[in-house]
Design goal:
mainly alpha; two-stranded antiparallel sheet; 3 helices
C-alpha cells in the first residue's frame, strides 16, 4: 500500500511540475508572437538593414573617392594587355584576386622605444 501511495504521489508531483513548465512555455511563446512584439522585431530588422546599407554605401563611396584621387589602384589597373595572373598554377581573372599590402611607418627611432632612466 505504501509503495502505491509513493508512486501515486511521485506521479502527481511530476504531472503538476510538467503542467506548470508547459504553462510557462506557452505563455512565453504567446508573448513572443504577440502582434506588438512581431511589429517591434520587424522594425528592428528594418533599422538594421538600413544601417547596414548606409555602412556599405559609405565604404563604396570611400573606395570610389580613393580611386578618383589615385590613392588606390587595383591589380587590373597594373596589368598590361598580354599579362596574366596565376594562383597555384591556374590562370584567374584580375577581378577575382584581392591583394593585401601591409604598410608600416618608419620611425625615427628605428622602431625601438628608449627607456628614460
Amino acid at each position: 500500500m505504501i509503495k502505491r501511495l509513493t508512486w501515486f504521489l511521485g506521479g502527481a508531483v511530476a504531472g503538476i511540475a510538467g503542467a506548470s513548465v508547459a504553462k510557462k512555455k506557452v505563455k512565453a511563446a504567446t508573448a513572443e508572437y504577440a502582434p506588438a512584439q512581431m511589429a517591434k522585431k520587424a522594425s528592428n530588422r528594418v533599422k538594421e538593414a538600413i544601417a547596414e546599407g548606409k555602412r556599405a554605401m559609405k565604404a563604396k563611396e570611400a573606395e570610389l573617392r580613393a580611386r578618383m584621387d589615385g590613392s588606390v589602384s587595383t591589380l587590373a589597373d597594373d596589368l598590361d594587355d598580354g599579362d596574366a595572373v596565376f594562383i597555384d598554377g591556374q590562370p584567374v581573372e584580375p577581378g577575382q584576386v584581392i591583394v593585401l599590402r601591409q604598410v608600416r611607418e618608419q620611425r625615427a627611432e628605428s622602431g625601438r622605444r628608449r627607456r628614460k632612466a
